[in-house]
Amino acid sequence: MKIGCPKEIKPQEFRVGMTPNAAREAVNHGHTVLIETMAGVGAGFSDADYVAAGAKIIATAEEVFASADMIVKVKEPQAVERKRLRAGQVLFTYLHLAPDPEQTHDLLASGATCIAYETVTDDRGGLPLLAPMSEVAGRLAPQVGAWTLQKANGGRGVLLGGVPGVLPGKVLVIGGGVVGTHAAKIAAGMGADVTVLDRSVARLRYLDDVFGGMFKSAYSDAATTMELARQADLIVGAVLIPGATAPKLISRKQLSELKPGAALVDVAIDQGGCFETSHATTHQDPIYEVDGIMHYCVANMPGAVARTSTLALGNATMPFMLALANKGWKKACAEDKHLLAGLNVHAGKLTYAAVGEALGLPSITGAKALAM
């Protein structure tokens, strides 16, 4: 199979879909790997690194898309990239279709088979290809939140860790999954007063057992969420419903109840965001203010630490990429229900029910797609 990896073109996106090590593995399995020139530079990988791994360097993205049987990326294909997809081609990347009807319609029109990292599952009920970036984004959230809180950026001017004689800042993490857990660990490590909210008592019990008194926890009903939000200097939105639009946890009206200059970091922005006033921003212009509340809503937070993120993502995606290349997408998905769960679009059909529900579009099951 010819596996193509174009350079990411989303603003301020420095990650790359394949590491040189992943390229080497694919070549060793008998595949041809086509890398767009300079694709890996943002993550610290030169064209020479890919050549040494056995890959071929291609001059333009157009040539990569035209030649490859499977396209491996990081971010969802941008409009110009979607026009380059064709029927029968496999796209393996993050998609986040639920809040993005334009992308969804373009992928359906392309006829391509599109497998989304974020909906691939595992035996433990986890999302193994989303987890590495969730870990990175969670660890970044207190860091960027602390920066947003600085007075020069419009924030409250609060130091999360405090100093002797001055209380630390209060951090509220809404969601106790992968993002929330890592955000809470880092915020607590910075010396902040941290509380994690979740709707799963079992998850809260796990966090308490594992982390002890490092941070507090509470059940996430509406009243408790707002009571703690009013006290918070920094609120991290870390709620995920796999493949679906994120629930809105704080409305615009409720912003008036928050501390002036408080910071909201919305890690769920790829799925539409979990604050009503959230809209996607970039690393180039990451924060904005609504009703005196600062919002940080960068849609590709892990892109800020591109090398770490690329290596972490490559470790997770490589076995699935090889399965798709070695067996073809149909056999690979037929033999692995977890990879089949990643199938979102095939031959003009939507194959992920949660996306269909979010966008009001009909969908078919993955099993039906395999039979087409």
3D structure, described in words:
The chain is built from 14 helices and 15 strands. 36% of the residues lie in helices and 16% in strands. Strands 3-2-1-4-5-6-14-15 form an 8-stranded mixed beta sheet, sandwiched between helices. It has a 7-stranded mixed beta sheet with strand order 9-8-7-10-11-13-12, sandwiched between helices. The chain is α/β, with parallel strands linked by helices and 372 residues long. The protein has helices spanning 20-28, 47-52, 61-67, 79-82, 101-110, 131-148, 178-189, 201-211, 222-231, 306-327, 329-335, 337-340, 353-359, 366-371, and strands at residues 2-5, 32-36, 56-58, 70-72, 90-93, 113-116, 170-174, 193-198, 216-219, 234-237, 263-266, 287-290, 293-296, 343-346, 349-350. It folds into 2 domains: 2-119 and 307-371, 3-Layer(aba) Sandwich (Rossmann fold); 131-299, NAD(P)-binding Rossmann-like Domain (Rossmann fold), CATH 3.40.50. The protein is globular, with a radius of gyration of 21 Å.
Briefly summarize what is shown:
The protein has 14 helices and 15 strands. By secondary structure, it is of the alpha/beta class. The longest helix has 22 residues, at 306-327.
List keywords for this structure.
372 residues, alpha/beta, Rossmann fold, 2 domains, eight-stranded mixed β-sheet, seven-stranded mixed β-sheet, globular
What is the topology?
Elements: E1 2-5, H1 20-28, E2 32-36, H2 47-52, E3 56-58, H3 61-67, E4 70-72, H4 79-82, E5 90-93, H5 101-110, E6 113-116, H6 131-148, E7 170-174, H7 178-189, E8 193-198, H8 201-211, E9 216-219, H9 222-231, E10 234-237, E11 263-266, E12 287-290, E13 293-296, H10 306-327, H11 329-335, H12 337-340, E14 343-346, E15 349-350, H13 353-359, H14 366-371
Parallel strand pairs: 1-2, 1-4, 2-3, 4-5, 5-6, 7-8, 7-10, 8-9, 10-11, 11-13
Antiparallel strand pairs: 6-14, 12-13, 14-15
